[in-house]
Design a protein that fits this description.
Elements: H1 4-18, E1 27-31, E2 37-41, E3 43-45, E4 48-50, H2 52-62
Antiparallel strand pairs: 1-2, 3-4
């Protein structure tokens, strides 16, 4: 069992690096069953909005990863 606090810490660090209101205001971290962690920030754009969780899932799926912890 992994520590979810690690995911919070990774997301928080990413948000601190990328925080650019109003474009990037939320970050998420996703642990794959392999143990790899994928993180992403939200994207707020005049054409629409992608939440951080969806962005992390999109990165994983585009890399062929479908198994998450």
């Amino acid at each position: 069992m992994h520590n979810d606090t690690e995911l919070f810490t990774i997301a928080q660090a990413l948000l601190e690096q990328r925080h650019t209101p109003p474009v990037h205001t939320v970050a998420a971290a996703l642990r794959c069953q392999s143990g790899e962690v994928i993180s992403a920030v939200n994207i707020d754009h005049f054409l629409g909005f992608v939440c951080a969780e969806t962005a992390a899932l999109a990165i994983a799926i585009n890399r062929g990863i479908y198994d998450f912890d």
